[in-house]
Automatic annotation (TrEMBL):
This is Iron-containing redox enzyme family protein. Pfam families: Haem_oxygenas_2 (PF14518). It comes from Planomonospora parontospora subsp. parontospora. It comes from the Bacteria.
Length: 336
């Protein structure tokens, strides 16, 4: 993966630094010019800092991952990002562990129908270019699917840990490369004529798309956010089956073959099972062991639901005005 193109003063200076061997540098953050969740420069900078903990960038020294100047910048970016999340996502009232399942279910039910139905549009009305745009957005996460939530495994024990491992094992194809969900998504991209290489479309996606992935990395890379990470994953699983069924039907309407649709079809079945494991065993077990963190579980779920709504609003608003939801017209297309 190449370093993305800069989107402002933060990323311009950060990427200049990353092009050299690790060294001390000072990069004060400018006063924000727009809300954090819409700030392309900040979201891309944070994405790049996090990516050093995943696969890194071609030509960037791996030692940057733990460079103290880089970590200091990441901390400053995270502080601003967490403030932005707190302003956009009201924190649900804390509940006793015994009431967590009901509170989670009510939170998801309240979010259902809150905002435009992107899944319904993709099923019934989207044209092929719009569906391809949607896949480009999702590729930023789906090509590393499960990785951010896996950070929680060594931070858990008992029933919650076993449940998370069970979910993640399915995400990683139970050890079979061709069944890994990231590989299934690559087949979807190839079926749509899109470049399926890791990180190929980062330059194309807007701040809100980056913010969705950055939220998972923020929660995953900080032990203090482990409850929020579990809530995020649970909300993801609880709201996945029906939209994926609609995505599959929409892609079939547009001529997508079974290989291109398999990613969505797999999630219809798998996530219906994962929902119960995530809600009862993972989140329930964690809250029973850590009653004071039950509210964090709900907050993580609320972040997942809110950001998904904001993403849908962004995409639908652009499409309703006849423009692209990506940062530039056209798409990066792979070889036929």
């Amino acid at each position: 993966m190449q370093l993305p193109l800069p989107r402002g003063p933060i990323t311009a200076r950060l990427f200049d630094a990353l092009a050299d061997p690790p060294h001390a540098f000072d990069l004060p953050l400018p006063h924000p010019a727009r809300p954090v969740l819409e700030d392309d420069d900040l979201q891309l900078a944070l994405f790049a800092c996090y990516e050093l903990h995943y696969r890194g960038f071609d030509g960037v020294d791996d030692r940057w991952e733990w460079n103290t100047s880089l970590l200091g910048l990441r901390e400053a970016l995270e502080r601003r990002f967490e403030e932005g999340l707190a302003g956009a996502v009201p924190r649900p009232p804390a509940v006793p562990p015994a009431q967590l399942r009901r509170a989670m279910t009510e939170l998801v039910a309240a979010a259902d129908g809150d905002g435009p139905s992107l899944a319904a549009f993709l099923q019934h009305r989207a044209d092929l270019e719009q569906f391809r745009e949607f896949v480009v957005h999702r590729s930023v996460y789906h090509l590393k699917e499960a990785d951010p939530h896996t950070w929680a495994i060594p931070r858990l024990h008992g029933r919650a840990k076993a449940a998370l491992v069970e979910i993640q094992s399915d995400e990683y194809g139970c050890g079979r490369l061709e069944r890994m969900h990231a590989e299934l998504f690559r087949a979807t991209m190839r079926g749509l004529g899109l470049d399926d290489s890791y990180g190929a479309h980062v330059d194309r996606v807007p701040a809100i798309t980056l913010a969705i992935g950055n939220t998972m990395s923020l929660f995953g890379l900080h032990r203090r956010h482990r409850g929020a990470l579990l809530g995020h994953l649970a909300a993801f699983e609880m709201t996945s089956s029906t939209p994926n069924l609609k995505y599959s039907r929409g892609l079939r309407r547009l001529g997508g073959d079974p290989a291109a649709r398999r990613f969505y079809d797999e999630h219809v079945q798998a996530d219906a099972v994962h929902e119960q494991i995530a809600l009862n065993d993972m989140c329930g077990g964690f809250a029973a062991d850590h009653p004071a963190l039950a509210g964090d579980v709900l907050y993580g779920a609320a972040c997942a639901l809110t950001l998904d709504r904001l993403f849908a609003e962004h995409v639908m608003e652009r499409w309703q005005h006849g423009s692209t939801s990506l940062r530039e017209a056209g798409l990066a297309v792979g070889a036929p």
